[in-house]
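Handout, section B. The chain below has 286 residues.
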Amino acid sequence: MKFVKPERLIIRGNSELDEKWVQARLAEDPSLLGLGDLVLRDRERPQPGAGRLDLLLQDPETDRRYEVELQLGTTDESHIIRSIEYWDIERGRYPQYDHCAVIVAEEISSRFLNVISLFNHSIPLIAIQMHALKLDDSVALVFTTVLNEFERGLVGEDEEVTEVVDRAYWEQRGTKETLAATDRVLEIVRRIDAGLEPTFKQQYIGLANKNGKANNFAIFYPQKHRLLVKVRAPQSGDTEAELTGAGLDFSYDGKAQRYGLRLSASDISKSADVLADLLAKSHAST
């Protein structure tokens, strides 16, 4: 295939392209942002005493709403404040939904990225940088997430407050059968990444690489009758169809963004391929 180097365009100040044009492209195909298969709920949505929200998008599976603010050129203080203000207004008007603020700009400087990061620890906030690329007489838009939502771990994942134990501790809790089931799932994990080992904590069994760095894309809770495995993954209709088809007992925690699988030994034997697929996808995204 022939390599062709595109020319980057700055939309701000361009005589042919403007913010309305970008809005229209995103309204036609919200998936361009890279946030999933979202749908358009509204465009230029009036905000009481505070202007208009550029785009309101929604995830049809989870009903989560994304308040999207566009800015041509370099982001600034007013863009950040406006994005947070619109997010706050929308979540106040529609508290039944989960909401996330999204800042989109052609340039996000390191200074403002640091500022956004501070807000990011207490507000669900995503920052996306947009590039317009020209190739011959065509223009493409490329969106790159430069700051994702701050991921809040479960209390059981907090290494500073979680006491390290050993395998014997879990054996003494009367969970030998489900501990054996844990071993079988760990065999699947090692086929995905041979460098991972179990880490035994008082609250759960996690995963770490050979240097001891935690990689808890999956965490294990051996219980008396079943093994509970929590796997970090975005909620997906395809994933849930596979789990349902395999006859697995599962639930989804939207806050922690984890699937909870309650497994028996026979579940692991019958559904090893489905489990391996979910674990592999989760591992790849970490």
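Note. DSSP finds eight helices and 13 strands in the chain. Compare this with the example in section A.
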